[in-house]
Design brief:
- The complex is a heterodimer of chains A (315) and B (729).
- Chain A has 315 residues and is of the alpha+beta class.
- The N and C termini of chain A lie far apart (55 Å).
- Chain A is built from eight helices and nine strands.
- In chain A, helix 6 runs antiparallel to helix 7, helix 6 packs parallel to helix 8 and helix 7 packs antiparallel against helix 8.
- Chain B is of the alpha+beta class.
- Chain B folds into five domains: 155 residues, Alpha-Beta Plaits (2-Layer Sandwich), CATH 3.30.70; 49 residues, no CATH class; 122 residues, no CATH class; 226 residues, Hypothetical protein af1432 (Orthogonal Bundle), CATH 1.10.3210; 126 residues, Isoleucyl-tRNA Synthetase, Domain 1 (Orthogonal Bundle), CATH 1.10.730.
- In chain B, 50% of the residues lie in helices and 13% in strands.
- Chain B contains 27 helices and 18 strands.
- In chain B, the strands form five sheets. In chain B, strands 1, 2, 3, 7, 8, 9 and 10 form a seven-stranded mixed β-sheet that branches. A four-stranded antiparallel β-sheet of chain B has the order 13-15-16-14, with helices on both faces.
- In chain B, strand 11 and strand 12 form a beta hairpin.
- In chain B, helix 11 crosses helix 15.
- The longest helix of chain B is centred in the middle third of the chain and has 26 residues.
- Chain B starts with a strand and ends in an 11-residue tail after the last helix.
- Classes of the chains: A alpha+beta (315), B alpha+beta (729).
- The interface between A and B is large, with 40 and 48 residues.
Chain lengths: 315, 729
């Protein structure tokens, strides 16, 4: 029996004919730049930035290069599958390079070229967009990257993460994969994206994969999510985060922290639970600010703990 | 004379910061040069998205030599003095000093210190890195490997290269020898990111501009603006359309491109159902594109102008198609907002306002709407509006804040409300009032004309002012976070330009305060300061103040008086006349104050007015001196019989005062200030004659007292129209 299965001739993995082709091309591109290609973090997050490979690794002096796809959840953006551009669950492709190389803009443009954006035909622009995450106590300067007037990526030089000045600064690139795929595939509705590159009966669309879940999760996020449970989970996560930080605290003044990452998981958890509560409309304007502050305090404490680990560069 | 060329090339600089940064660069470099004694012929700075550039023309190659004489001790002075002199003048021995003789002081040492002027190149090498390191960007950042060290260079985005050359036109200029954080100044730069990716060598400003132009970079932002504007107009014209010009957008767009290429895109005419303002808002804010209209019409055309940064190999087809796609998606969103919004009546949105906090201490927007509605109803008769319509308009005025469209484009507040109101069949005055109740915003904005709009506009502003006054959030110095000065100016302009009488302290302000959330009102008088202070404050109030009036009213009224003064001063009115009118008690009606100031100004321009003022001043002077001398005042009414026995001029003045004062008082009562002034003007002749013929300080004490009382009566008569003591000249 032959070990090589025949490739289906109907499948085309070019970045401009399939969603997964786009992802694979970006992974290959950044792998060639020496990035660690990671898999998505196994928790619900609002953006690829929350992945510890970005948030925690951006801290401290150690160089780091990574790229990964991160499914991201924005409960409030659910539209029951009826809006061609908005999703409560979508994919980000995240690249983090610390310190940022001097030619990061050129590398980014080369990655666009790699996925089939012809730079002689398309108008690429870097338009001011300063990034700030109040929940992560993080900010940076950069741009939204426009292709013919459409925002296709975010480009940020991290200045501060978890309340700590970045030293050295990391460069972060975030590609909005669905939007980029819609552009290179020339599709107007996200659910019409060709996911697998197949044609005819072999074609699987984004809608085939995600339409039902968008409908179900929209219902869940806006109508059903158990708010009493979520409030409990928020408090539990907050408490657990503190407990783990205490339990892993260094035993001596110059010792290492031993549980920064499990504590940070609870911070991520609290943040997502907050987003769900927000989507359910049960948090008032004034309370909102205080919840954001509570998550930020956790993020800052986790960041401080991480700096006392080997990964954070502690001696 | 040599020139300086400086270019700081970076990653993309935010459009909004470019012009200011170019100005700062020019100022910082030229100031630093002048400070060191280097004068220049001219300096100009430029900015593109990827560079700041500076050209300083006509600098000297070297600074001036400096010769300084430093006086030393006399010859034969103690050793310590000599040593101190040598040290401070930098001399090795007295041989290097000169001896000068003075006929009085004898001989003394002088050190002549000559410092040759420094090479400009060296001075630039010292100045430029300092300026780069401390450049005043509104926001700056660190980057790359260098950011691992503290104190690394900050710039708006990563700084990539520096060109700095200095030299005369005829020779190859020198590179200014400096570097910042490992970036050495040189002669290499780059042109357009995509159209000319190769390095270019530059020497001086002239060939720099030409080289950039060849490398598809237009250095001068104003030239880029010109190109965009003219190409946009031409493209529109070719389609039989007209560009909707927008200076702010033009400035921004010129800061987003180095080589502007203007293209025209179209969209489905079906989108033109969306209000034009919303189409323009989304295309401008989200896509940085211009909209177009049918020539001579308000109606938009289904097309837009985009400015790309690329001469594309397909002539811009793909770029146009891409932009059209995004505009289509944006307009679909706007259309969705518009359709969704139309499906809900404005009054059905009101409950949502109950959950929006206006201010922590002033309740929700919903509560505020109730207050404004009640106040608008109360104001309606004063402005000639129908009370029901005013109340209705006020109730709906804020409903559009919770529409999708205004949520997305806050600048469309009011305008969208008017459109939704018109669609749901509201009275035209109600619909117009919803848009206009925010007006006037500032000194040059339009003032509404429809009485319904005027009532709601006044109610909105008065509630704001009373509210923030009641929680003691008043403007201080340059801080006015709630734009209360603007609100007061709005009330002033509404009142004056629409000729509305507002009895502020009697009715309007108390109503506004009374409507505020209970238990949150603050009394402006500080009771803890003790009885003495309290008593002093109460005594300081004008005599006919109603002591039971809310002190907040008095305080807010003073704020209005203050803003009115500023407003009138800007209009060229004499501040002393405004003071003269405000010095009278009970001036709470802005319109009447202004009418009085106007009448007074006109009166004082006449001979009668000027002479009467002179007579008044003379009378007041005499009174002041005599009252001080006698330690008493002469406030009793003059005795007419006594006056009749004195000089004829005395009797004439006495009679004229009685008539004139009565006439002036009656005229003021009728609010006929011109007639009041007219009445006072009859006093001029008798006053002049009195001062000419009558000696005030008569021998007879009774006569003297009565004459002083006559002068006091003159003072009192003028107070019918103003406090003349405040008038200058």
């Amino acid at each position: 029996m032959s070990s090589a299965l025949p490739l289906s001739s109907a499948v085309d993995l070019a970045p401009y004919t399939s969603f997964q082709g786009l992802i694979l091309t970006l992974q290959r591109f950044w792998a060639a730049q020496g990035c660690v290609i990671l898999q998505p973090y196994d928790m619900e997050v609002g953006a690829g930035t929350f992945h510890p490979a970005t948030t925690l690794r951006a801290l401290g002096p150690k160089p780091w290069k990574a790229a990964y796809v991160q499914p991201s959840r924005r409960p409030k953006d659910g539209r029951y599958g009826e809006n061609p551009n908005r999703l409560q669950h979508y994919y980000q492709f995240q690249v983090i390079l610390k310190p940022n190389p001097p030619n990061l803009q050129e590398l980014y443009l080369a990655s666009l070229d790699a996925i089939g954006v012809d730079l002689k035909l398309h108008d690429i622009r870097f338009v001011e967009d300063d990034w700030e995450s109040p929940t992560l106590g993080a900010w940076g300067l950069g741009w939204e990257c426009w292709c013919d007037g459409m925002e296709v990526s975010q480009f940020t030089y991290f200045q501060q993460v978890a309340g700590v000045e970045c030293s050295p600064v990391a460069g972060e690139l975030t590609y909005g994969l669905e939007r980029l795929a819609m552009y290179v595939q020339g599709v107007e509705n996200v659910y019409d994206l060709n996911f697998n590159g197949g044609t005819g009966d072999d074609k699987v669309t984004y809608g085939d994969v995600f339409l039902q879940s968008e409908q179900e999760y929209s219902r869940h996020n806006f109508e059903a999510a158990d708010t009493a449970m979520l409030f409990r989970q928020f408090t539990d996560a907050e408490k657990a985060c503190r407990t783990y930080l205490d339990a892993g605290a260094p035993e001596t003044e110059s010792g290492r922290h031993r549980m920064a990452q499990p504590a940070y998981d609870q911070c991520i958890k609290a943040s997502h639970v907050f987003n769900l509560l927000d989507a359910r409309g049960v948090i008032s304007v004034t309370e909102r600010q205080s919840y954001i502050l509570r998550v930020r305090e956790l993020a800052k404490a986790c960041g401080a703990a991480y700096l006392k680990t080997a990964g954070g560069g502690a001696a | 004379m040599p020139d300086l060329l400086l270019e700081l090339r970076s990653e993309e600089i935010p459009a909004r910061m470019q012009r200011r940064a170019a100005d700062d660069l020019r100022k910082l470099v030229t100031d630093a040069l002048v400070e060191r004694g280097f004068l220049y012929d001219g300096a100009k700075a430029f900015a593109t998205p990827r560079r700041l550039a500076l050209h300083v023309a006509g600098l000297p190659a070297r600074g001036k030599d400096v010769r300084e004489e430093r006086k030393g001790p006399r010859v034969g002075a103690p050793e310590a003095a000599v040593q101190g002199f040598l040290k401070s003048a930098g001399l090795a021995s007295l041989d290097q000093a000169t001896i000068v003789s003075d006929p009085k002081k004898g001989e003394s040492y002088v050190a002549i210190i000559e410092r040759p002027g420094r090479d400009t190149l060296d001075v630039l090498a010292e100045i430029l890195p300092q300026i780069i390191r401390s450049f005043p960007w509104p926001k700056s950042m660190r980057w790359g490997q260098a950011s691992a060290q503290p104190g690394s260079l900050r710039w708006v985005r990563p700084l990539q290269s520096i060109v700095a050359t200095f030299g005369p036109e005829t020779e190859t200029p020198d590179v200014v020898p400096f570097g910042v954080d490992g970036i050495a100044a040189g002669t290499t730069t780059y042109g357009h990111r995509f159209l000319a990716p190769d390095a270019i060598e530059v020497r001086r400003f002239d060939d720099y501009v030409a080289a950039l132009e060849r490398a598809k970079v237009v250095l001068d932002a104003d030239r880029r603006k010109d190109i965009i504007l003219h190409d946009a107009r031409d493209l529109a014209f070719a389609r039989g359309l007209e560009l909707v010009e927008d200076e702010g957008l033009l400035e921004e767009v010129a800061g987003l491109v180095e080589w502007p290429v203007v293209l025209l895109g179209t969209f489905d005419p079906a989108f033109l159902d969306i209000p034009a303002e919303a189409i323009r808002a989304t295309i401008k804010a989200n896509q940085k594109c211009f909209v177009l209209r049918e020539p001579g019409a308000e109606r938009l055309a289904p097309a837009f102008i985009l400015t790309s940064n690329l001469v594309a190999s397909d002539g811009g087809l793909a770029i146009t198609a891409g932009n059209e796609r995004v505009v289509r998606a944006r307009l679909s969103d706007a259309k969705f907002f518009w359709e969704t919004d139309k499906a809900i009546r404005l009054e059905d949105r009101l409950p949502k306002l109950d959950s929006i906090v206006f201010h922590e201490k002033l309740g929700t927007q919903g509560e505020r709407v109730e207050r404004i509605a009640a106040l608008a109803r109360e104001l309606a008769p004063l402005v000639g509006a129908d009370a029901d319509l005013a109340e209705r308009a006020a109730r709906l005025a804020k409903a559009d804040l919770v529409t999708e469209m205004v949520g997305e484009f806050p600048e469309l507040q009011g305008l969208m409300g008017r459109k939704y109101a018109a669609l749901q069949g509201e009275h035209p005055s109600v619909a117009a009032a919803i848009e206009d109740h925010y007006k006037p915003v500032g000194p040059s904005d339009r003032v509404p004309t429809d009485p319904v709009a005027v009532a709601v506009a006044l109610a909105d502003k008065l509630d704001t002012l009373a509210g923030f006054w009641s929680i003691d959030e008043k403007p201080t110095g340059s801080k006015d976070p709630y734009a209360l000065r603007r609100a007061a100016l709005g009330v002033i302009r509404l009142s004056l330009e629409r000729e509305i009488r507002l009895p502020l302290s009697d009715a309007v302000l108390p109503s506004a305060f009374d409507a505020l959330p209970a238990g949150r009102r603050v009394v402006a008088i500080d009771f803890s300061a003790g009885m003495e202070q309290l008593e002093a404050e109460l005594m300081a109030l004008p005599p006919d103040t109603d002591l039971f009036a809310n002190p907040l009213v008095i305080d807010l009224l003073a704020f209005f008086a203050d803003r009115l003064k500023v407003y009138l001063r800007d209009k060229g009115a004499r501040h002393d006349l405004i003071d003269a009118v405000f010095a009278l008690p009970g001036q709470d009606d802005l319109l009447m104050v202004v009418r009085r100031v106007e009448a007074l100004g006109k009166f004082l321009e006449t001979d009668d007015g000027r002479n009467l003022l002179a007579g008044y001043k003379r009378a007041a002077n005499i009174l002041r001196i005599e009252e001080k001398k006698d330690g008493r005042s002469y406030e009793a009414a003059p005795d007419a019989a006594l006056a009749a026995r004195g000089e004829p001029e005395e009797r004439a003045l006495s009679e004229a005062l009685v008539t004139a004062r009565a006439a002036a008082s009656a005229a003021v009562e009728r609010e006929d200030f011109a007639s009041a002034m007219q009445a006072l003007s009859t006093l001029r002749a008798p006053v002049d004659a009195f001062f000419e013929k009558v000696t005030v300080n008569a021998e007879d004490p009774a006569l003297r007292e009565n004459r002083l009382a006559l002068l006091n009566a003159l003072r009192a008569a003028t107070r019918e129209v103003a406090d003349f003591s405040k008038i200058e000249g």
